Amino acid sequence: MRQSIPIYLAILVGSLTGCGGPEDVEMPVPQVFVQEAKMIEYRPVGSFNARLESRNEVQLTALVSGELQAIHFEEGKVVNAGDPLFDIDPSSYAANVAAADADRIRAKSTLDNNQKTLNRALALIDDGYISQSEFDQIESDVNSAAAQLRSAEANLQRAQVDLDHASIKAATTGRMSRSNFNVGEVVGPESGPLATLIGGNMMDVIFQISEAAWYRAARNGLPDVSLYDVADVELVFNDGDVFSEVGYIDYIANRVNESTATVEVRATVPNPNDILRPGQFVTARLTLKEPQSALVVPQAAVQVDQRGTYVLAVREDNMVTRVNIVTGQRLAENVVIEEGLEEGALVIINGIHRVRAGQTVSAKIAGQEQNDDI
């Protein structure tokens, strides 16, 4: 029992001291540094995963059947428009042309003879030397011969087209793939592509933008301007290098993809040195050509918790308030605020972790002497 006396004495002394001492000391108002949310002009930049496609990709397919007699190109090399690429055995098609031409000559001869007979009949019928029915028959023979000539000419033209198709030529200047067939194999319309020709010095860049991004662009009047004037398009390779040529948007899909909630966009980029290849994956970096107005705050002011992204702002009565925001692009040390904040709002950038919403603070504009230990 004696060991408990000091404890009671300590409690008693503490109670007497608390009762007889001065009033509780008021805690100082926390000091924070703030900065105004301000409007600036900037060119928004967006990056998108993209794939490259050739606008002038030609699948070379045999339009007639026959033995492949010759391949005239080097695989992987550039060919010029009009260069011969494949030869299919033309012998049967040349024979068809000769036969069709003979039929044309025969039909032409028949028409000429019938026309002469009609010319003589025109003189005879007026004098009554031939009957009207005989004249009508002669005239009918002329019309029939003319029809036969037209049919023969059409057959000749068709045979000539088949003969021309036996020689496959490059439709444009471009780079050849490997050949899918060897000399001596039989090819035809059902054989599939003989090879692929990638032509032109422009490359298509295909990427997707979110439905929300499209809505914001549409709301700002994007459909009403020339697509060429929307943005500069740069290509960034996987190693971080930026392609030397700059392209432009030339197509935006007319509907939203229901499965991905995205809108397809196509840009065109010059490819003068044939560096870009179809199927390649790059990052498409878009920089709007026209400057946009945006509200920005320092990155240091932006906080994130389970409730979302926010800043702590100081009201005119020095009360701290939480403001939930939607952020956009980061610009150096600033962040674009798309929703939630108004121009001129004072946001805390230093001392933010020592205060909470609803607390009164002493705010100073950033740039004045700051004490990092506040």
From TrEMBL:
Listed Pfam families: Beta-barrel_RND, BSH_RND, HH_MFP_RND, RND-MFP_C
Coiled coil: 135-169
Sorted UniProt keywords: Coiled coil
Membrane association type: Lipid-anchor
GO MF annotations, alphabetized: transmembrane transporter activity
Any single Gene Ontology cellular-component annotation: cell envelope
Record domain Multidrug resistance protein MdtA-like C-terminal permuted SH3: where: 294-354
Multidrug resistance protein MdtA-like alpha-helical hairpin domain location: 98-165
Ranges of residues in domain Multidrug resistance protein MdtA-like barrel-sandwich hybrid: 56-187
InterPro entries: MdtA-like_b-barrel, MdtA-like_BSH, MdtA-like_C, MdtA-like_HH, RND_pump_MFP
Domain annotation Multidrug resistance protein MdtA-like beta-barrel: ranges: 203-288
Compartment(s) where it occurs, according to its Swiss-Prot or TrEMBL record: Cell inner membrane
Gene3D superfamilies according to UniProt: 2.40.30.170, 2.40.420.20, 2.40.50.100, Helix hairpin bin
Main location: membrane
A biological process from GO: response to antibiotic
Family: Belongs to the membrane fusion protein (MFP) (TC 8.A.1) family.
Official protein name in the record: Membrane fusion protein (Multidrug efflux system)
Native source organism of the sequence: Umboniibacter marinipuniceus
Upper lineage: Bacteria, Pseudomonadati, Pseudomonadota, Gammaproteobacteria, Cellvibrionales
